[in-house]
Amino acid sequence: MNTAQFTPAGTLTAEDLGRIHLIGVGGVGMSGLARLFLTRGLPVSGSELREWPSLAGMRALGGTIHMTHEPSNLDGVDTVVYSSAIPQDHVEMVEARRRGLRVLHRSEALAAAMTGRRTVAIAGTHGKTTTTSMVTMVLQQAGADPSFVIGGEISEVGSGAHHGTGEHFVVEADESDRSFLIYRPYVSVITNIEADHLNTYGDLATLEAAFAEFARLTDPDGFIVTCADDPGGRRLAQTLRAEGRRVHTYGEAADADLRLSDVVSSAQGVRYLAEIDGRSLGEFRLPVPGRHMGLNSASAVLTAYLLGLPVEAAEAALAAFPGVRRRFERKGVADGVLVYDEYAYHPTSMTLAMRTLREVAGEGRLIVVFQPYRLYRTRDLQAEIAVALGLADELVLLEVFGPGELRQPGEGSAALVEAVPLPADRKVFVGSWEDAPVEVARRARPGDVVVTMGAPPISLMGDELLAALSARAGDAAGGAGGSAATAG
């Protein structure tokens, strides 16, 4: 069980960090933090081994990116920032300690950046990236110009972080390693609580206790938002209200403070009516489909309402919400096949994503290219993940992405593929990255929807799938007049 300890938020500011170096700067969480520091005018460097798409933007902002991990990368550095994915014996971690540099976990560096702001922290087993993006856009629409750090990029903004001039700081709070317990939010939003990260917590009861501890860190002058439709969220609200804390709920449940009704989801998007304390707030529309997207947006509406922002700002922001990269992100179309990318790797979020993609596919089939994320999760939730993958018409399964984890006999995707309730000819475990586009090109037909889903690296496969489908079309046309791939 992970028992890492982090220093609670204090008086340290981002400017106190001096020259900042981030190990593994291309990762989703680290790249957002780096961008925040860069837009704040701070000197930033980072090290990476893979040319992630986010690196070009960092260089454009003046960041120095080293495509190696070595001691000399720390020359002139004052503070080294690492994530939980970086082992303590990493060459740059060892060198940082040898030099006596300040060494901070990502969450500790982020807490320094939040000093002096009213933090709106969004936590939850899933949905927090989308919800954080929605809250951010609502505040922007209201003219609040918040700072934000999100575990993904808002498609329209093209960024997962920004240093704003307003009093609010919107942040996605990660529960996976307990690091969300160092924050001191003014507003805490908890989307849901389900079994996950059991390598850290051991069981659901301990995980729920951590969420309760997180909520109790909320400023007494602020408030807590939970989902009335989620059993874990409902239990948390009852516990906190019994302690006299200010808790507000949202959902379709009859007793939700902000209640949704007449929810309609289609390939064109989702819409619903909302009311609070019996007073209508009107109709809200999003251009992205999925009932779960409507539920996430309701938390943003409730948060904005409780902060005293105009409801009209929430309505306008959600109507223009472009989605989040790696969350139902359309990559393009080739030879009549639509290709999407989706970050889901927990069975609940996988199920929600695939049901939404089926709305898009219509009469077409759904082909899932899945890369499981973390051996412990794949082992602990294998039955649930297998059931979720069984919603696909065809499955192409890659090996588990679990950096730093040791594979035990019987663990991994070879075992998972056997558990998926699909006929043998409709599922395949591929042993290498290069085999996946070949399998997709062999299986997909015009009208089908293909989605890459799971661990971060799989997001890089979309272009390769489109290329393979285009090449197939060109071959079928004898090398002339084949259907080209179209991005977007």
Fill in the keyword field for this structure.
single chain, 488 residues, alpha/beta, Rossmann fold, UDP-N-acetylmuramoyl-L-alanine:D-glutamate ligase, Protein-Tyrosine Phosphatase, Chain A, 3 domains, 10-stranded mixed β-sheet, 7-stranded mixed β-sheet, 16 helices, 34% helix, globular
Number of helices: 16
Beta-strand residue percentage: 15-25%
* Low-pLDDT windows of residues: 154-158, 480-484
CATH class of the largest domain reads: Alpha Beta
CATH fold-level name of the largest domain: UDP-N-acetylmuramoyl-L-alanine:D-glutamate ligase
CA radius of gyration: 22 Å
**Helix coverage percent:** 25-40%
The neighbouring-strand order within the major sheet is 8-7-9-6-10-11-12-13-14-15
According to CATH, the homologous superfamily of the largest domain is: Mur-like, catalytic domain
Which shape, going by the Cα principal axes?
globular
Termini separation:
42 Å
Q: What is the CATH architecture term of the largest domain?
A: 3-Layer(aba) Sandwich
- Counting structural domains, the number is 3
Q: What does the largest sheet look like? A: 10 strands, mixed
Give average pLDDT, whole number: 87
Briefly note the structural class of the backbone. Answer: alpha/beta
Q: For this entry, what is the oligomeric state of its chains?
A: single chain
